Fold this sequence. Notes:
single chain, seven-stranded mixed sheet, Beta Polymerase, domain 2, globular, alpha+beta, 7 strands
Amino acid sequence: MMQFNYDKILNDLTERRFNTSNYSMILNEDKKIRDSFSYSMIRDFANSRQYLDLQESSAVKYVIGAMLPVAQNYTQQIISSRNSIENTLRQMNQNEYRDAKLEFEYQGSVSNNTHIRRNSDADLLVICNYFITLEAGLPCPNPYQGVPEDDLLTLRRNCIKKLGGMTPRLNIDDSGAKSVKVSGGHLVVSVDVVPANWFETKKSYNSNAKEDKGIMVLDKNKMERITNYPFKFNALLAKKDGNTAGVFKRAIRLLKNIKVDAERATGNEIKFSSYGIASLLYDLPDVEYHIGFSPLMLVDVIYKQICRYTSNNKLRELTDPLGEELNAKSHTVEGLRVLQSAIQGLKSTLEEDVNSLAKVIRIAS
């Protein structure tokens, strides 16, 4: 059973959320927000730091803070960096791509509000409209004559060239198989630029709904495309979060934070991705998240769910919210067992610190 130094991981959590663990600096930022932002932004920032004001142990504060969303004003800074890159790349619609306008969409934890860092990376999909890929059986009145992989590789190179001309100069990392990482310059966070094309499914063909469409992303190393459904994924997460009064996404953030701190404590990567964490917790029936005003009960809920999948090779049965199998190399029983040990240690400490995990702690959100 893993044991944490809870004063330390509480400081680490606060550093992730505010880029500081100094409470006086956080309060000073709170004052600046009160002097210059709307009432909703003021209230949101106060809610984002409420765990620090609790008259509770460090372990309890950690759990409450780890499940809260990142403050809206910080998330807006992330989005502003992403929008800056998008606006620059949109200029290509007046030149290289004027005959087939590029489209821009978003994926990843920032887009579904499960990010846990003030400076989380943002994902920007750059969608080529020279062609779309059709699910087998759909009519194709105007067959595409080009090579999709070549056109997506060209799009990637054009994005790099366009971003290379920005001032102040950006750091452009082209080493990733599926995305180009852009950082530095005027950006407050890194932005991952992901060239892609639309994948029209039979369902989206009839509904014309974005959440029913897929995208195809180029792996430049293998020169092959991979199909993803980020809009459906986000829609399913949002629906479950609504059905559970926001507790579902609190659980995702909590387990993601525990993973980060367990990796720091052990010095080893835990092979169970954030996508896998969302899938593991999506698998739970909505009723399991009905914990009322007892947020510490979420630790027990997550622990029991992890235990279900660490025995008898049951992990092979876990699918993502779309019903697809998880990548076995990125989601191992060994990785899940490390998370099990970490949350078991947390649960044990909480049970020593409070009379019952059912203790009422009201959280504003």
